[in-house]
Amino acid sequence: MVVIIVGVIVIAFMFTDLLKDNSPKNDWKMPDVVGMDFNDAVAKYGNNIQFQQDGEEYNEADPGIIIDQDVAPQTEFKKGAVLKVKISKGMETVEVPNVADMNSVLAKDMLNQKGLEVELRNSSSTKVEKGRVIKTEPEAGQSAHKGSTVIVYVSMGIEAGQVSVDDWVGKKLDDAKMLAEYKKLKVTTKGVASYEKEGTVVKQSIAKGEKVEVGTEIVFEFSNGKAPDGTISFSINFPTTADGKFSISFMLKKEDGTMETQDTPTFFVPEYQSITQDVKGSGEDVTVNVLLVNLVNNKRATIGTYSFNFADKTYELKSGGDIDAAFQTVGGFPEATTEAQTQPQTQATQATQPTHNDQQPGVNGDYDINGNWVPYSQGSNGDWVNGAWTWYQPEVNGYWGDDGRWHWGQREQQTQPTQPSEGGDNNNNNEW
Length: 432
Hints:
- It is built from seven helices and 29 strands.
- The chain has 432 residues and is of the alpha+beta class.
- It folds into four domains: 30-88, 2-Layer Sandwich (Trypsin Inhibitor V, Chain A); 93-155, 2-Layer Sandwich (Trypsin Inhibitor V, Chain A), CATH 3.30.10.20; 162-223, 2-Layer Sandwich (Trypsin Inhibitor V, Chain A), CATH 3.30.10; 230-418, no CATH class.
- Strands 17, 18, 19, 21, 22 and 23 form a six-stranded antiparallel beta sheet that branches. A three-stranded mixed beta sheet has the order 2-5-3, covered by helices on one side.
């Protein structure tokens, strides 16, 4: 009886073991490492996979890149399994042989033997005999990948297939195209802003007299009728003894006679020693009046009158240009301000008269009814108001005060203290 019971127990244990799967499970799937750098693959998967290099081969991939693996991706594996991989050595290179002055057929065979492809191109030459090699690209002695193409230039003889380029700048675009195409050049065009008449060729990509192959592309730039915009950087250095809060206005006189003003930011002197303003505009001879403005007393003075050429980004002084005098006029030197304000009529008398060549009506002066030239003298005989010059007309649009300064509007009327008007203060102090 005991023997039977023991046998049953043994059979039960055996049956239980059969039902259990004690074999280790493959919980890992092989990654795809082709295209990865070998060192990067080891760093990423080395804890689970043992990498072994299975040789190196020339390949289009960069050196060190894995180009093959012996276990397919997504295959289950046990941790610690071995993965054999092939590594790229990069593309095999060869040295381009020197085939210059060699017969083109022999040159092609020599390059083919090096594992290089060949493209033959005809070219004229003044030195190399027809049918022989002038040069190669890449040049002889340089390295090239096996299977890459080497361009071989083969001589067509002295100047065969070449044309001499003429000067077509200044011609009408249609005429220039016709003449260039007659010489078997390939013409492309590009419209650009220019001061030339619309449709005029202003630039060509190949210079006059240059010899080029038939079929060479030449680019004609032609005027599209729009004046080019430009920017001129204008710099001013300030007197070291000046003091105050200022700005500078650039008054541009346009072709239609209107004025455009461009102002600098506010600056403080002597904290600022100089300032540079980018003035934008268009035209080759634009009159620009540069004004200094004292933002404390609102006085203004002309620094100078200039001619701006926005085409070549240059400017030329036409009159004035005395920055010290401008600061003096606007009270930019504190010690000199009082004396300047107490003698307005004297300033007018001593105003510098411009030469005949400097006379620009509406800019730095004007003619009176007798035809005599009267220059603008800011603070003495007039001032700029809303971008336009306004003459001082005592008792008409203003008056000289007891403080020696000009005041716009009507002089205040003195009322009798014993006879006040019924309406209160009848003072009419209109501001212009």
